[in-house]
Amino acid sequence: MLNALWLETFVTLCETAHFTRAAAALNMTQPGVSQHIRKLEAQVGEALLSRDGKSFTPTPAGEAVLAIGKRRRDEDRELRRTLRHDDPDAGQVSVACSGSIALLLYPRFLALMADAPALLLMLEAAPEARVVEGVAEGRFDLGIISHPPAHPRLEGESVGQDELCLILPRGAAAPVSLAELEALGFVAHPDGFAHADELLGANFPDDYPGAERLAWRSFINQIGQIPAPVARGIGYTILPRSGVDTYPERDRLCIVPLPRPVRHDLWLIQRRNRQLPARAERVRAQIGEALRAL
Do 25 and 47 fall into the same domain? Predict the structure, then answer.
């Protein structure tokens, strides 16, 4: 790599066409300018100036080095301009989270993109292991998980809780026994089995047989459609509140209060010590506002 300081001295000398003027422009002495030129010539291995008394012209090698120096100066100016102008309304931001949280966040992301046409938001619903892996590897700028990050390359902040909710059709009476739920049938989904173990196991500890022995009424793996059977009077299900409140026919559902609520912590994670660009900080603020409101 050409020495950046010597290269800048050479470009300035060629632009001023005079050693004394170059020294004044660089706040150097004339011998200091001459020393930089000699060192740059030694690094290149070619004479860079053809001298004629006190005047000079660049040699062919000097013309090539001068072109490189001007390009580097332009690149440096562009870099400084970019660093000074970190636009919160332009560029890409990628976020990974659970499906229910994605349903909660996406309307906010749509509003952000409508307000800022140059802003590109990538939202991926993924299992927690993939969220952690993706943020650690830099594929996602931000991630949301249910526990403090243990990965050494990650850091996070607690941004709220998401309550597990027992969902029945609107107007249904709160069950006093697990048998009443079993009579309705479970609307199962991929995360529903773990949710059932947590919520039903905590509230019906003497009768709960485990998720694998629940009576099914239906199964669906599309997060946005899980409440649909319940809204039509078919069975019951268990979802995080983030997945219930975003359902378009929320008024046809009933969240049943239980004696022992179960809540999942929500942690917003990113790469450790990474300074996020302004656009990602804007998205981060929207995520925090949405999750703290749950």
Answer: yes
Bridge-based pairing state of the strands 237-240 and 154-169: antiparallel
pLDDT score at 76: 87
Domain stop point among 49, 84, 119:
84
**H-helix or E-strand containing 49?**
strand 49-52
pLDDT of residue 223: 87
Give the pLDDT confidence score for residue 140 in this predicted structure: 97
The mean pLDDT value for 85-111 works out to: 93
Average pLDDT rounded to a whole number, residues 41-49: 93
Same domain flag for 178 and 254: yes
Q: Where are the alpha helices (DSSP H) in 227-277?
A: 228-231, 241-245
Taking the C-alpha atoms of residue 208 and residue 165, their distance in angstroms, rounded to an integer, is 17
**Burial class, 99, CB count within 10 angstroms (exposed 0-12 / middle 13-18 / buried 19+):** buried
Name the residue range of residue 283's domain: 91-161+265-292
- 168 lies in the same domain as 258: yes
For 107, list phi and psi in degrees, rounded to 5. Answer: -60, -35
* Contact indicator for 88, 278 with CB cutoff of 8 Å: yes
Which pTM was predicted?
Answer: 0.69
Number of independent structural domains in the chain: 3
Radius of gyration of the CA atoms of the chain, in A? 32
User: What is the CATH classification number for the domain harbouring 50?
Assistant: 1.10.10.10
Using CA atoms, how far apart are residues 142 and 284, in angstroms rounded to an integer? Answer: 8
